[in-house]
Amino acid sequence: MRHDHLISAKQLSRGDIEAVLDRAAEIDADPGAVAGTHADTLLGLLFFEPSTRTKMSFDTAMKRLGGRTIDMGSVESSSVKKGESLADTVRVIEGYADAIVLRHPSEGSAKLASEFVDIPVVNAGDGAGQHPSQTLLDLYTIRQNAGLDDLTIGIMGDLKYGRTVHSLAHALTNFDASQHFISPESLRLPRGVRYDLHEAGAKVREHTELDAVLETLDVLYVTRIQRERFPDENEYRQVAGEYRIDAELLEAASDDLTVMHPLPRVDEIAPDVDGTDYATYFEQAHNGVPVRMALLHEIL
Questions:
Q1: Annotated catalytic sites, by residue?
Q2: What is the distance, to the nearest Å, from the Cα of residue 202 to the centroid of all Cα atoms in its chain?
Q3: Three-state DSSP class for 183?
Q4: R_g of the chain, CA atoms, integer Å
Q5: Residues 220, 260: contact at Cβ < 8 Å?
Q6: Hey, is 278 helix, strand or coil?
Q7: N or C: the chain end with fewer CB closer than 10 Å?
Q8: Could you tell me which of 195, 214, 198 has the C-alpha nearest to residue 154?
Q9: pTM value?
Q10: Strand order in the sheet with 42-47
């Protein structure tokens, strides 16, 4: 993979994806093989929204490659609080770092940032838009547990505002995957995403109930309701808690089902699922380090 920036999963070909996943598998098996390979590299972390896994795994990944990170810190403690524009912020950071990882609440922000700098920009989430590095670690986890071809996957929850869903759905069009989307009517996939999937020839079906497809699934990808994206709190309350996975419900599933979640979870997966063979979400989170090591290695 040789892209100047990673902004959207739509820019990734099957070859791009497999190159990163194969490299991640090599790193997973022998992390020491790439230690020190980017000893003179500085990665700028610009997170305008809260993050635990994405921020810390990119930080860890860069350090395990031998590089270092610099962190903008919170918005409240930065010049953004004084009214500095995103364009000015990234142009300043370009003078300090060799690449930027950016999370921002506005959809399209990563693309905008990439137009003002000559160093790589990795989109770590732009509002309800895209989250391509999350998708790469999701695909790595799916490949480990179920394979990426002849795959039947259910994606459930907030499909309207869930950027991890939008990225994953696009990336899966590179593989022989049947995608079942389960959500309330008010949280269906955005029309633009549905159009793109149709144009790509994806095998897609939409449902309001999980029961209709649960026993056919190889993977169930659960997402939380994105409360912070709702323009109206009352709209959020109408759908909050509508879908909940517990061990009893999963008795109807295949024994080989893989249950995933990008985290953080709220109440959409009950704690009694954690101890089952279905639960893969903590493994999924751990995969963020080797996958992001591989991604940085390829981009840099």
A1: 53-54, 82, 103, 131
A2: 20
A3: coil
A4: 19
A5: yes
A6: coil
A7: C
A8: 214
A9: 0.92
A10: 68-71, 42-47, 99-104, 121-126
Q: How far is CA 218 from CA 150, 164, 171, 251, 278, in A?
A: 9, 19, 17, 14, 10
pLDDT in tens, 166-213: 999 999 999 999 999 998 888 889 999 999 999 999 999 999 999 989
Q: Strands 68-71 and 121-126: what pairing?
A: unpaired
Give the span between the Cα atoms of 114 and 138, in whole angstroms.
24
Tokens of 33: 């093989």
**Cα–Cα distance measured from residue 34 to residue 59, given in angstroms and rounded to the nearest whole number:** 16
- Give pLDDT tens digits for 21-36: 999 999 999 988 899 9
Helix 132-145 vs helix 288-299: crossing angle, to nearest 10:
120
Report whether 220 contacts 258 (CB < 8 A): yes
Peptide linkage before 231 cis (omega within 30 of 0): no
What are the DSSP calls for 63-90, one per residue? HHTT-EEEE---GGGSGGGGT--HHHHH
**Going by C-beta distance under 8 Å and a sequence separation of 6 or more, which residues neighbour residue 249?**
210, 214
Question: Hey, how many other C-beta atoms are within 10 angstroms of the C-beta on 296?
Answer: 27
Q: How many CB atoms lie within 10 A of CB 155?
A: 25
Task: Extract the tokens encoding 280.
Answer: 């893969």
